[in-house]
């Protein structure tokens, strides 16, 4: 074979898969968001009908779309922030622990990270169970005056956490932060171990405070790590599905939908509204691409793709 | 306070924080496992029972013998394993070929390919649900494990190539050139020189793909209609019945489905992290 053709030959399966399973479906999704996809179309018995911006008009006129959008964005902002802050703090902590102690903590946090999303959902649903959940038991342990002061109530017996949208999201935030901070922590730890000890020595000699050392040495040097972690967290948290699905026991409470679940629920309900589902998916994709565009540009400009 | 006392004090503080982090991370996992070994009177109680003092295998046994949704749990385990292993087998071959191409050759279109790889990773897979569902249906792969495998290969491949190419690039080119000079063919060079050296990276990417496919709920939910084709995440949903929730059985099933993943994670966590943030840390 002509040696010039070798790399192309090696790339054929990869290109076929990426085109056929990711790029082409994305184009299809865009086209479908302008079509009415009926059951007959799904069965292949009819051609889809072009409806212009009809699907978008319909979802924008639906209050569930706006609550889903709000839930998606607020959840992502809160969860990404908490995950990064907690993860960084734990990473810095791990770096200062003795070898044995840090291995011990790493095994613990890795176990949390490894739990499959569906199992994460079931675990936290069980912890927050109204009747026999341990969270209500723990809240009842608080002295009545403190519980009243903090929450305005003393008795938590039978508190149904997973009924209202706001408390579903409270549990969801906890679940996702719990399962994703370990990755941030070990990544930050890996980054910290790469920073020469002399820098910290110099800072110590100059009498720098720990916070100042973090701001002036650790943070600037780990900036690229934080950039990757932020973008990965944004991607993961914008489209969270499995945990929410399990916590709510399927697409039940429409007030608590996010965009992924809303798109899923519209497209696969009876009768299916796949055109509208696709329109919601387009909105989600566009938001994600805009949010991540800056990062992608940085990566492209850097030597990463050279 | 003397400096020595302060140091000791700081050390106690750090270790306490470490233990608290460990407990926060570990407790929910522990609670899942311990619930699956508690008798029902210790599960359905408003009290806190830290250890299963009425230790029982009743839930595990029930899950393994009775199953759920009309089938044995072993069938769902088998389905999950077939999908995950199928994804790994096909995906790693494709990923290795593509990673070798971009890490070892300079060719026209290489940069475009890498940019495409980067951009497709930003597309939420949940957004592709509808077109993928219709395409799988049209191809006659609906309700077949093969359909799920195909989808999972697509979802995991971009990251697989992205991660594996750093491993391929890390193998010194001179090794291959030496083999060349000794008269080895292109294939022998690849198989005898490059492959063994890239194998650890291949293991890491494979485990990543395995876990992604093993954990998937949404695609299995829409592509599998007949209960005999359910994977573990879908089967688990059927324990949340109308007549109250059997938490013992649910936690036993969750434990069964989590164990292989935890073992895998502990095996490769170091490599996973270095692969994910490689470009950034290298700096």
Name the descriptors.
heterodimer; A: 306 residues; mainly alpha; 1% strand; flat; B: 283 residues; MetI-like fold; 2 domains; 13 helices; 0% strand
Task: Give an overview in words.
Chain A has 306 residues and is mainly alpha-helical. Helices cover 74% and strands 1% of the residues of chain A. Chain A has a single domain (37-305), classed as MetI-like (MetI-like fold, Orthogonal Bundle). Chain A has helices at 6-32, 39-42, 54-60, 63-96, 99-114, 117-127, 134-141, 144-151, 165-193, 197-205, 210-238, 242-247, 259-267, 274-301, and strands spanning 35-36, 49-50. Chain A is flat, with a radius of gyration of 24 Å. The model of chain A has no long low-confidence stretch (mean pLDDT 91). Chain B has 283 residues and is mainly α. Residues 278-283 of chain B have low confidence and may be disordered. Chains A and B meet through α1, α4, α5, α6 and α7 of A and α1, α4, α5, α6 and α7 of B.
Overall average residue pLDDT of chain B: 88
CATH architecture classification of chain A: Orthogonal Bundle
The rounded distance between the terminal residues' Cα atoms of chain B is 42 Å
Number of helices of chain B: 13
Radius of gyration of chain A: 24 Å
* CATH class call of chain A: Mainly Alpha
CATH class placement of the largest domain in chain B: Mainly Alpha
Q: Please identify which CATH superfamily of chain A we are dealing with.
A: MetI-like
Physical arrangement of strands within the biggest beta sheet of chain A:
1-2
Shape of chain B: globular
Number of strands of chain B: 0
Order of helices and strands of chain A: HEHEHHHHHHHHHHHH
CATH architecture of the largest domain in chain B: Orthogonal Bundle
The amount of beta strand of chain B, in percent, is under 5%
State the secondary-structure class of chain B: mainly alpha
State the helix count of chain A: 14
């Amino acid at each position: 074979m002509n040696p010039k053709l070798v790399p192309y030959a090696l790339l054929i399966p990869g290109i076929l898969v990426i085109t056929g399973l990711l790029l082409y479906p994305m184009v299809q999704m865009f086209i479908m968001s302008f079509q009415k996809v009926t059951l007959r179309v799904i069965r292949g018995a009819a051609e889809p009908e072009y409806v212009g911006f009809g699907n978008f008009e319909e979802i924008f006129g639906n209050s569930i779309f706006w609550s889903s959008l709000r839930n998606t964005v607020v959840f992502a902002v809160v969860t990404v922030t908490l995950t990064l802050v907690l993860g960084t703090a734990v990473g810095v902590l791990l770096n200062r622990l003795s070898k044995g102690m840090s291995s011990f903590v790493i095994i613990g946090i890795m176990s949390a990270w490894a739990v499959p999303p569906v199992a994460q959902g079931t675990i936290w649903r069980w912890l927050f169970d109204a009747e026999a959940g341990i969270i209500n038991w723990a809240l009842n342990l608080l002295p009545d005056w403190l519980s009243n002061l903090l929450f305005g109530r003393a008795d938590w017996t039978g508190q149904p956490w997973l009924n209202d949208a706001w408390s579903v999201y409270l549990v969801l935030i906890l679940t996702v932060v719990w399962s994703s901070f370990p990755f941030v922590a070990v990544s930050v730890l890996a980054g910290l171990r790469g920073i020469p000890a002399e820098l910290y020595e110099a800072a110590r000699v100059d009498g720098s405070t720990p916070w100042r050392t973090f701001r002036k040495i650790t943070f600037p040097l780990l900036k690229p790590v934080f950039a990757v972690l932020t973008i990965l967290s944004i991607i993961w948290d914008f489209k969270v599905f499995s945990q929410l699905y399990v916590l709510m026991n399927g697409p039940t409470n429409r007030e608590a939908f996010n965009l992924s679940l809303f798109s899923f629920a519209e497209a696969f309900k009876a009768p299916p509204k796949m055109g509208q589902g696709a329109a919601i998916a387009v909105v989600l994709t566009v938001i994600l691409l805009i949010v991540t565009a800056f990062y992608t540009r940085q990566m492209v400009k850097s030597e990463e793709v050279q | 306070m003397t400096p020595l006392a302060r140091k000791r004090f700081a050390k106690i503080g750090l270790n306490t924080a470490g233990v608290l982090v460990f407990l926060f991370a570990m407790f929910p996992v522990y609670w899942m496992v311990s619930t699956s070994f508690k008798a029902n009177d210790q599960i359905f109680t408003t009290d806190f029972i830290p250890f299963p003092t009425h230790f029982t295998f009743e839930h595990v046994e029930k899950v393994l013998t009775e199953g759920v949704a009309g089938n044995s749990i072993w069938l769902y385990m088998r389905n999950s394993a077939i999908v995950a292993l199928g994804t790994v087998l096909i995906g790693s071959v494709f990923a290795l070929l593509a990673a070798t191409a971009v890490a070892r050759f300079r060719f026209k279109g290489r940069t475009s390919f890498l940019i495409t790889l980067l951009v497709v990773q930003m597309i939420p897979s949940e957004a592709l649900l509808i077109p993928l569902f219709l395409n799988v249906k049209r191809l006659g792969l609906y309700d077949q494990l093969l359909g799920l495998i195909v989808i999972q290969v697509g979802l995991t491949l971009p990251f697989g190539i992205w991660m594996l190419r750093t491993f391929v690039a890390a193998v010194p080119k001179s090794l291959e050139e030496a083999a060349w000079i000794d008269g080895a063919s292109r294939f022998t060079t690849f198989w005898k020189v490059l492959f063994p050296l890239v194998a650890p990276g291949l293991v890491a990417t494979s485990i990543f793909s395995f876990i992604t496919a093993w954990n998937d709920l949404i695609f299995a939910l829409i592509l599998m209609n007949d209960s005999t084709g359910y994977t573990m995440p879908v089967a688990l949903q059927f324990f949340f019945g109308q007549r109250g929730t059997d938490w013992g059985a649910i936690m036993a099933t969750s434990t069964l489905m989590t164990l292989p993943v935890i073992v895998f994670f502990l095996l490769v966590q170091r490599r996973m992290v270095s692969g994910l943030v490689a470009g950034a840390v290298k700096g």
